[in-house]
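Chapter review. Work through the record for Corrinoid adenosyltransferase before attempting the end-of-chapter questions.
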Amino acid sequence: MKIYTRTGDKGKTSIIGGRVDKDDIRVEAYGTVDELNGFVGQAMAELDRNQFADVLDDLEKIQHELFDCGGDLASVSKKRPLKLTEEAITYLEERIDKLVEEAPKLERFILPGGTKPAASIHIARTVTRRAERLVVKLMKQDESLSLVTLQYLNRLSDYFFALARVINFRLNVPDVEYVRSANVFRDGKRKGKKDER
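Structure tokens for Corrinoid adenosyltransferase:
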């Protein structure tokens, strides 16, 4: 079986329900979600199953959800049902709350780093934010796009932030605090900011 088709040699690509240029914002959005999935896989390869079984189960679930997310973004077909559901968002919120309880109290901004797997998760977090920005841009062109996709990516970036802190905590490595940061968090939330979840 050949994996190349030559159908994209002139800068076009197939999506569900049509064809678009490869630099179309829709392709940028689902391509970034695919990139994110790769970073999640990298982080999984760096985590020990004995110490992070719950996390690895989460991340495998997230990989499937990201594949669903990419498929939803790649579709312009009105007949295709969405695969990503609100239940995925609810699950992330539950896991975020548990991770925040496990990690040490947060007072200052932190820098990406500490341990290698935590750093990988921080990369996943920043790529998630980029995917979220691209979805916002796409929604301005396609108002039929489901809000679930945007909400899921928003929660996912929060999940990755909380997870990176827990990874460092379980590996007995402190978070790297931003040295010029004031005490900006109260009870794990940003002072002066409403909970945007």
